[in-house]
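Exercise 7. Predict the joint structure of the components listed below.
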Amino acid sequence: MAGLVGNVGWIMGKKQTAKGTLATVTAGTTFKSALVGGGLAPARAIGQLSETDASRDQGVSYVQNESIGGSPEIYARDDALGLYLLGVLGADAITGTTPNFTHTITPSNTLPYISFWRDVSDVLWEAFQDCKVSSVTIAAQAGQPLTATANIMGVSSTRLTTDPSTAAAIPLSSGFAYNFNNATVQLGGGATNLISSFSLTIDNNVSNQQTDDVFLFDVVEGRRQVSLDFDLIFTNLNEYNSFHYGSTAGTALSSAIYTTSADFQFDNGANNQVKFTLPSIAYSEFPVNVNPNGDPIVVSVRAVGMRSGSPIVTATIKNQVATY
Amino acid sequence: MATISLNDAAPKTDEPIRFALAHTEFELAAGSTVETDDPEAISNAETHPWLAVETPAPEPTNEVNAVEVVPTQAPAHDVDVFPENTPLTTDEVEPVEQTDAPGVVQADPKDSE
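Solution:
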């Protein structure tokens, strides 16, 4: 028996029609992605009885629960990426006609359940039911491909004996992988080319609920948090002054929260796009420091989405997917 | 039953817009509406930037045996519940007649015998 290769595998997902019903794998609405890192797997919580005994040995083990969890990381391709953004935000409004569609994905109060499947080295296939996307982080640095890391939590799993993507001939997503070189950035409504990296995190703080069985009762979304980090080449005092001193020309410390807007748009022609719109963000950190080694000053800005932005974040995907 | 329609922020398109709000899916064109009594769908529609939700006010009940609940109103602390009373003056106070009766009645175990 030979060892198994490590770089053969994928993750596949499709939105369920309701809780408790594993989605049916069909071409066009089921999306299979190669993994950059991470993965999704059953997670078994084990406890140990704590009692005295005739010996000093530890107590016997027992199963507390079995849940689904993991953080698969994929390259941002506009077909599969839409499923993860719909999973983390919840609402999709679709415009356009075949073959080109625009998905305007916005936050909703409840999240859809999604079925996921995984393949490990073409010998292990598992189906994961009643999953929710707890968080998604979209990140890229100058010259590097855009990646999406989704933290997924789910209720139950089933081991399959055959590849679930074969019958419906689900292709591995292999379209254009967006790169930060494709970005157009706006800060405060104006175009800027001073941003060299960005990381956007949308976090639903999903938590597990367990009642009277080894598998979970449910996974439930909590408070939604949106945070944005980016590196800004420091060329003027405008943003720094606005953050600390209340205005671009301010000199006195201000107690006011400075808010601005940020748009990150990635284009691949006229009909393919990934765009994130944050109408109101508030900086939480804007560190400006000198470098003894002489490197130019780059400010690692941290910001949070403000509820006053309506909606707090919008993801727009242009692709050839009619529906998720 | 709530009625969902497009609001002014929705894009003006020739084709209807398809919405997927978690597990609720529907199409809306300009001037069209959908109705639902699913609270999850209503909640998600209310937060959507392109949707307007109208929920009719509840109609008054016509049931004969309906019970009308009248909230009780506790009197304020400084309300004189006997408004005809006025404070007594010292002239109006009569001294209490002294008696030999004990001021405190104590139980005597022998009384029960």
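Discussion. DSSP finds one helix and five strands in chain B.
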